[in-house]
Amino acid sequence: MAAAADFARSKEAMSYALCIHLDRDPKSISSTLIKESDIASLFSHFVNNPADEVKKWVEFSSNFASSDGEQHTSLGNLNQHLSQMSVILASGFIPSVADIVVFATVQVFMSHLSDSELQKYSNILRWMDYIQNTIDFGTALQKINVAKSVFNPPSPSPPKKADKGDADPSSKKAVSGQKIAAKSDGAADSKKAAEENKVPGDKANATSAKNNKPSGDKKKAQEKTTGKTTEAAAEKAPQKSAEKDSECNVSILNIQVGLIRKAWKHPSADSLLVEEIDLGDGNVRQVVSGLAKFFSPDEIANRRVVLITNVKPGKLRDVMSAGLVLCASNKDHTVVEPLIPPEGAKLGERISFAGFDGKPEDVLNPKKKQLDKITPHLRTDENGIATFRGVPFTTSAGPCRSSVPNADVK
After folding, report:
1. Neighbours of 33 (CB within 10 A)
2. Domain shared by 127 and 254, yes or no
3. Which of 132, 153, 182 is the last residue of a domain?
4. Helix extents (H) in 261-376
5. Backbone CA torsion sign across 54, 57, 62, 63
6. Where does residue 358 rank: exposed (0-12), middle (13-18), buried (19+ CB within 10 A)?
7. Exposure winner among 25, 85, 317, 395, fewest CB in 10 A?
8. Domain count within the chain
């Protein structure tokens, strides 16, 4: 079973993965700190004031590492928890710090189990396979090989033979002849009906109408006037349509990848946080967000986010804000999470949407209520991918996501 040396490696792997996940240099954490700290105290060097759910899983990991002979009971509880979850927290597919801590602790114990014992924890194995191929734990841990069932699709059924009647050339000719005959009869009936419906005096009326035609000069003037009117109307209609479409076209937004360098509580509003967000190339701006109820300043710091940078700057409770951090929230607004750009996306990179090309406006006009027209179409799909009208938020490294699926984004 797992020994003290194994859990020392788990702390090393945990420290490395947390550094990568939180955009910190792994060399900034000394080996002495890793060696002498227990799991809870080591974790506190990365997150000072974690959410209650995260605290629960850090405690789970600490108890798991220190308990002797009780690990199988803990694994049974974890296996049950993961029966309805893809990751430890929420219901999406984005791993959190809780997944990193629990994985690093459980992995060293699971690596000593036999195949028959491992099969008792099928949900944990599925989760571990996903985490070890998603999170970088360095070289301290070796991957666990998870046997995966192979799906063999059924063989396609042979095509049906055509009926003889369908292939009979004579029947096709008969149908074709009927169609031609019907067409000829119809044409004859139409001609006959037209002759019968002629009104006496049609020739005179035709002559009168002919005589009432405008003269050449008048005709040209009318055509010129009519042409101008039609042309003006044709030009005006597309212009109005284009203006209307542009107001709810996501391409007018400048949505970029940013990194929260630091955050602090708003001095006069308990529900607001103030963040200093790095957009790369020395471009740092201050943004006020309504995230204080969901994240502490330490939890939100060093986190990559997606934000709209061409909203009109203004003060929120006397504090200047020059951006809007986009967040996904569930229906009752009890879970709110900033969208997560993929690893590898560059700071300042503009988010794109396939099929929606165009340059963003320099600054959005609040009077046009452009955001109000666009945000109803921003949502995460069933896999947590952020979309505009079903089109993903795309970066050079892939789509932006959230652990909150089927959620509103604003």
Report:
1. 13
2. no
3. 132
4. 297-300, 370-374
5. positive
6. exposed
7. 25
8. 2
C-alpha–C-alpha distance, residues 198 and 195, integer Å: 6
Q: Alpha helices, DSSP H only, in 248-394?
A: 297-300, 370-374
- Assign residue 349 the CATH number of its domain: 2.40.50.140
CB atoms within 10 A of CB 82: 20
Question: What Å distances lie between residue 365 and 160, 245, 249, 342, 393, CA to CA?
Answer: 63, 15, 14, 30, 23
Q: Can you read off the two tokens belonging to residue 368?
A: 């046009």
Which of 80, 106, 132 is a domain's end point? 132
Q: Are strands 327-329 and 408-409 parallel, antiparallel or unpaired?
A: antiparallel
Determine the distance from the C-alpha atom of residue 346 to the mean position of all C-alpha atoms in its chain, rounded to a whole number.
17
pLDDT digits (tens, 9 = 90+) for 9-49: 889 999 999 998 888 888 888 889 988 899 999 999 898 88
Q: What is the mean pLDDT of the chain?
A: 80
pLDDT of residue 219: 52
Q: Count of CB atoms within 10 A of residue 130's CB?
A: 17
The position carrying tokens 């955050």 is 263
Residue numbers of the domain that contains 115: 4-132
Classify 30 as helix, strand or coil.
Answer: coil
Which among 89, 88, 99 has a CA at the least distance from the CA of 135? Answer: 99
273-278/284-289 β-pairing: antiparallel
pLDDT at 181: 46
**pLDDT band per the 50, 70, 90 thresholds, residue 215:** low
Pairing of strands 378-380, 394-395: unpaired
Q: ∠ at Cα 101 (96, 106), nearest 5°?
A: 125
> Residue 73: which CATH number?
1.20.1050.10
Spell out the residues 6+ positions from residue 29 whose beta carbon is closer than 8 angstroms to its own. 15, 19, 45
Strand partners, 395: 398
